[in-house]
Structures are given as C-alpha cells and as structure tokens.
Amino acid sequence: MNIRNIAVLGTGTMGHGIALLSAKAGLNVKMYGRSDESLDRGMSSIISSLNRLTIQGTFSEMECQDIISRIRGVKTLEEAADGADFIIESVAENLELKQDIFRKLDFLCTPEVILASNTSGLSPSEIANVTTHPERVVIAHFWNPPQLIPLVEVVPGEKTSKETVDITSEWIDFIGKKSVKMEKECLGFIGNRLQLALLREAMYIVEQGWAKPEEVDKAMEYGHGRRLSVTGPLCSADLGGLDIFNNISSYLFKDLCNYTEPSALLNEKVKESKLGTKSGEGFYKWTKEDIESKQKERTEVLLYFLDRDKK
Is pLDDT above 90 for 223? Predict the structure, then answer.
C-alpha cells in the first residue's frame, strides 16, 4: 500500500478512533481540530481508549506510546493537507459544512490525494459536486465504536473512480477493518438500512403490545442475533432454504410494519426527553452503574469477535 500519511479531520468519537486505528497500523497521522481544546479532548480520548485496551491485554504500554507518537494535532486545513496521501473527514453531519471542507481540500491537494468522508448518510455525489476532481471523493463510513466494530462501508459517488474505491478499501483492510464496497450510493447505505428496518419492526412489536422491550431484545440477543454474527441474512436464507423463506414471506411480509415516518412510540419518547442512556431513560431506565456494566459487557463481546476475526 502506498498510503503512509493520513489526515483525519475531526476529534470526536469517530475522528479520534480513526486516528488511533491508522496510527496503530503504523501510519503517520495528523488529527485536525479547530482549537487546542478540541485537540486535547481528542488526544485524551485516544489515551483513554488505549488505557482500556492495555488493561484488557490488547496492547502493552510500549505499544501504546508508539501509537501516540505517530499522531500529531493540527489546527488548520493547510497543515492537515500538507504531505497527506489520504484525507478522511469526520465532522458534524451537515452537508454545507462538509462541502466547504471538501472545496478547500480540493484546492489544497494534488489530484491523486483521496478525499474521504465518514458521513453516515449524506450523498457522496452531493459532497463531490463542489470539487473539480469528484473522481477522488468517496465515503468511508466507520461504525461506532470504530476501535471495536470492523465494518467500514465504502460508498462511491456518481463520478468516483474504481481506483479510488479500491485504494480506499485497501487502506481500510490495512488498518485492520473490514471494507464492504457498494456498487452505487443509496440513502443510508447498507448497514443503516438494515439496522433501521430491524428497529422499526422491534418498536412496532412493542407498540402493538405483543411483547415488552426487554423480551424483544432477548429474542434478538439469544436467537437471530447469534446467527447473524456468523451468517448474514442472505447467507442464512440460503442455509435455511429459499423455498422455506419464500413461503414465510408470502404470509408474513404483509403483516410487517410499513411505517414511512418515525413511530408514535419513538416520537413520544423523544417528546418526553427519554433519549436513552444520555438522559437516564429510553426504552429502559439507566443508572450510571447500568451504563458502565452494559458498555463493559459489550466491549468484552466485541473484543472476543475481534480476536476470532484474526484467526
């Protein structure tokens, strides 16, 4: 791989995670933040993540110091772009903001430098419209938390070149993630379309009074969810028999939720400021101890799968 110098724009959850992953893979990283405070927060988050992974035995202290030494904070786009082989933006989900950044990067960078966005849903074509080299603009959508979830969706715009897609996928695989290449863009990409379809049906089951939230979650955690970590929905259908799934579809599809707007249940929760762990209540009530326990459990399981992926 010819990429050695990475610029990551953004110091939040995704930005600092992408910077960490790139540095861990041996790349030189510039992490862009607009202020000393944002850069300090980003570096503190990286150090905290590394400390947790050290405690869990993933890294030694020497390896952590080596990773940190490869990351340098900068406060201007000019500094970030200087010498970069690959730039990935991970700022707020605002099209105008992203277009402004890409317009400036397009001027600062030579045509061979790939400009990627970590947007979770904005159109790569719309982002690329403000550039003179749309062939080098692509989406590289990491999933949260990026240190623990392998998936990165690679989404081309209308004018993105195959070379850009291939090089981006190569970089993703090099830093230890799993690239999934889309043939063309669509709203929500792959992962969010599947995730939201599942969430819509889960909320519908609760809304209809058929089961309580904890029972819906257990049905997924102890059933279908276990299988999905090994075989995706289409592979599962092949293994189960397409004739069987065709038969089930013939009577069940018509009874599934087909809402085209957020459900009344979800709207009610948001209206009541029951936003989940951030407010202390959503579908469940959350104490600080509950949140820490669930996050710890999630991290342990995700680390298990990361170890399995290496074998």
Answer: yes
Measured between alpha carbons, how far is 192 from 265 in angstroms, rounded to an integer?
20
pTM across the whole model: 0.92
Delimit the domains of the chain by residue range: 5-181, 190-260, 273-310
Write the pLDDT tens digit of every residue in 289-308.
999 999 989 988 998 898 88
190-260 is a CATH 1.10.1040.10 domain: yes
Residues 6+ apart with CB under 8 A from 197: none
| CATH fold group of domain 5-181 | Rossmann fold (3.40.50)
As beta bridge partners, residue 114 has 86
Residue among 63, 80, 82 nearest 8 (CA):
80
Place of tokens 């990773």: 67
**Pure H helices in the chain:** 13-24, 36-55, 61-69, 77-81, 95-108, 124-128, 162-174, 191-207, 213-219, 225-228, 233-240, 242-252, 264-271, 288-310
Cβ-count burial of 14 within 10 angstroms (0-12 exposed, 13-18 middle, 19+ buried)? buried
The model's pLDDT over 156-196, given as tens digits with 9 standing for 90+, comes to: 999 999 999 999 999 999 999 999 999 999 999 999 999 99
Q: Nearest-CA neighbor of 8 among 187, 156, 140, 203?
A: 140
